[in-house]
């Protein structure tokens, strides 16, 4: 499958790949509400970069600025080396944008959704047709090419939406919550396609509130909370820096967690009290569990697992990603 023409991207410096997104002190306000509060970003070509955080963290507002459809309130922003305030159309012509909601044309066939969209970029009809067929094969939709959109499952509609966003062979693909609402199998199929796109040189920028999605897809990410970046790094580096190797989850009776936490808070590096369970952060979950039992405590349910980005977010903000 074709990937972006590197001659269209900003020039590569001797220090590494070019920066496709660069922001300094970026802010976005809606009246008195400041949705994005002075963030700095630098995303090089070829990277899969993520914004992780709950709804209302400022992820989508940031993506709209990067997509050159929402002007920054303050700060400096360059996309593909260009200023979106003066070169919006040129930037948008080189972007692929996959919104949260599917905006497919239900009156058209699956193939025509791609062909017609390609025409908006001024591509010849023959070029649109060949690119459409290539994308349908890549996203395993070729057998349904003549059917209407309504015949597709949710996962297939998302694949078609992403296929459509690639019709102009963009330098940069923006994905806002790409797998929200999909079942686990459909999410894994989509992750595979996005991973393959990255291998082919497509630069991905995505927002998500799924920790496993960020861990699977992102080379590097920022954790956002209340319009600010509270941490940045690779998924593994963030987990190593802000959490322990393992977590022991204990579930007791309703209303017992707060009082029981005081009896075991010396058994772990950190204990988090959630409404339905206790989280004990430790480097050896099984050993910690054994010591809990030694104190005469019998949880109703137990889970020993590795730390995830969810634990990083909880540590940094005091909230879970789904709050």
From TrEMBL:
InterPro entries: AAA+_ATPase, ABC_transporter-like_ATP-bd, ABC_transporter-like_CS, ABC_transporter_ATP-binding, P-loop_NTPase. It is a peripheral membrane protein. GO terms for molecular function: ATP binding; ATP hydrolysis activity. Transmembrane segments: none annotated. Residues 1-21 are annotated as: Disordered. Keywords: Antibiotic resistance, ATP-binding, Cell membrane, Membrane, Nucleotide-binding, Translocase, Transport. GO terms for biological process: response to antibiotic. GO terms for cellular component: plasma membrane. Residues 21-251 form the ABC transporter domain. It is found in: Cell membrane. Belongs to the ABC transporter superfamily. This is ABC transporter ATP-binding protein.
